[in-house]
Write a structure and sequence with these properties.
By secondary structure, this protein is of the alpha/beta class. The protein has 7 helices and 8 strands, in the order αβββαβααβαββαβα. The protein has an 8-stranded mixed β-sheet with strand order 1-2-4-3-5-6-7-8, sandwiched between helices. Helix 5 links the parallel strand 5 (about 155-165) and strand 6.
Length: about 260
């Protein structure tokens, strides 16, 4: 079980920037692989998706999914995907104060280049539920969004990843480690911590962080998260860059290329 030494970034010292007090962990513990637990996701690609015999690809572009009355999830399908073949999917999670469009913006350009379908849900509040203390309504929205996508898109079950920026990166780590039989890869761009959830398998992890980040300082976040993950047996690629609390285009490109090396792109 992942050790939680990186507790609260000084509790509420960065609460204004995060949209709430960041706490390490939530109530209870999730279960890996779609089992019982507040972080668990049960939606899975349809049986024919590995061979491309599932539903045909939707038209290229971005469209709402209709899974929430407000702050809906968005599905983005790149141009030029091969017909009749299963496609990679990455769930992208926005930072505090963001929305589904902000989530897409993090990886959309390199994803278009590499042919990744993107699913961008939106948190119910100013940030993700587990960042504020407990998994709950945001997991439900992610579940509904994944179910819609898996019914409409021939997703390759071996090429599903989760990525996020800032609070979204923390949430991607929590969901990714708790649902390792769904997510083969996790991309965390400037994360703050790992929300508590029971981890099962070992997805690959990519962590990138700016050395001049003043919102989530690297010394109290990624430089603690990465050694803990490695100590617990995760294969972690760690990238530090000369910048602040941002995702430079070259870092986004590197993250998508890294996804591709595992067949996710």
């Amino acid at each position: 079980m992942l050790r939680r030494r990186f507790l609260a970034l000084g509790a509420c010292a960065v609460a204004g920037a995060l949209g709430g007090c960041t706490r390490a962990g939530g109530s209870g513990s999730g279960a890996a692989g779609g089992g019982a637990g507040p972080a668990a996701l049960s939606a899975r690609p349809q049986a024919g998706s590995k061979t491309g015999s599932a539903a045909p690809l939707p038209e290229p572009g971005t469209r709402p999914l209709g899974v929430a009355a407000d702050r809906d999830a968005l599905l983005h399908v790149p141009e030029g995907l091969p017909a009749g073949a299963p496609v990679p999917l990455v769930v992208v999670l926005h930072g505090a104060g963001g929305d589904a469009e902000a989530g897409l913006a993090v990886l959309r350009a390199p994803a278009d280049e590499h042919g990744l379908v993107l699913l961008a849900p939106a948190s119910r509040g100013s940030t993700w539920d587990a960042v504020l203390g407990a998994y709950g309504p945001d997991v439900e929205v992610v579940e509904r969004a994944l179910s819609e996508v898996f019914a409409a898109v021939p997703v390759d079950a071996q090429r599903v990843g989760v990525a996020g920026f800032s609070d979204g990166a923390s949430y991607a780590l929590g969901l990714g480690l708790a649902n390792s039989d769904l997510f083969s890869s996790v991309v965390a761009l400037s994360p703050g911590f790992v929300p508590r959830a029971a981890a099962g398998g070992r997805p690959r992890v990519f962590v990138a962080h700016g050395v001049h980040d003043e919102v989530l300082p690297i010394g109290s976040t990624s430089r603690r998260i990465v050694p803990d993950l490695r100590e617990d047996g995760y294969d972690v690629t760690h990238r530090e860059f000369d910048g602040g609390h941002v995702v430079p285009p070259e870092v986004a490109q590197e993250a998508v290329a890294w996804l591709g090396r595992d067949g996710t792109g």
